[in-house]
Amino acid sequence: MPNKVHHLNNNYEKITNSRHAKIIKMRKKRGVILVSIFLVVILILSYQLINTKMQSSNLASKKARSEVILKNSSEKNKELKQNVKQLYSNDYLEKLIRQKYYYTKPGETVYGLPGDVSRDVTQN
User: Fold this and answer.
1) Residues 6 or more apart whose Cβ sits within 8 Å of residue 76
2) Which sequence ranges form a coiled-coil region, renumbered to this chain (predicted)?
3) pLDDT digits (tens, 9 = 90+) for 28-55
4) Per-residue pLDDT at 24 exceeds 50
């Protein structure tokens, strides 16, 4: 079917085509602006999400390290409490003093072996 519509080349047609071109140009410009705004918002939200994830993983690793330190400290605390309880025992205290300072009971003799390294009492 042949195209039977002929466009007139008058002022009205030129103004209408000009307005139509301006509207299309303005819509394209708005579209580019909206897409740009959405991209900026998405980039900002992505940055925030990644930053939050990194902070969360850092806090998790710090928490794990702190828990290990707490566990070690608790074990050491238990050992120290046990040592304090043992210091109230005369037998343990006597044994400790005899080992550390080479104290003897009356009539006992202490023999030093070549591998023994005795510490002087004044070095504590």
Assistant:
1) none
2) 63-90
3) 999 999 999 999 999 999 999 999 999 9
4) yes
20 versus 91: the higher-pLDDT residue is 20
**SS3 assignment for the chain:** CCCCCCCCCCHHHHHHHHHHHHHHHHHHHHHHHHHHHHHHHHHHHHHHHHHHHHHHHHHHHHHHHHHHHHHHHHHHHHHHHHHHHHHCCHHHHHHHHHHHHCCCCCCCCCCCCCCCCCCCHHHC
Q: Given this model, what pLDDT does residue 78 score?
A: 96
- For the entire predicted model, the pTM comes to 0.51
Domain range summary for the chain, segments of one domain joined by +: 11-112
